[in-house]
Write a structure and sequence with these properties.
Radius of gyration: 16 Å
Number of strands: 4
Strand content: 35-45%
Structural class: alpha+beta
Largest sheet: 4 strands, antiparallel
């Protein structure tokens, strides 16, 4: 798992976000259909991508407008275990 998660070709795109209350409510529902009025998440309107390279120990996060990076930052990461 560790090697697969750190593969340089791995990228994750943020599509949906939820606050703490929505996550806790979903965990308590144990896969059941949420009740009316339950906290819900939202679709993220911009392209947000996270990429990491385990060989170099670097992670990069970026928010894009189309194919142009509007905000991009990177730095080292460490995996314990």
């Amino acid at each position: 798992m560790k090697a697969a998660a750190c593969d340089p070709s791995k990228k994750w795109r943020l599509v949906y976000t939820a606050d703490k209350d929505a996550v806790q409510s979903a965990l308590k529902s144990k896969g059941e259909t949420p009740q009316a009025g339950a906290p819900a998440g939202k679709y993220f309107p911009l392209t947000a991508v996270q990429t990491w390279n385990g060989e170099e120990g670097r992670i990069e996060n970026g928010v894009y407008l189309g194919h142009v990076a509007a905000l991009k930052f990177s730095g080292p990461f460490y995996m314990l275990g």
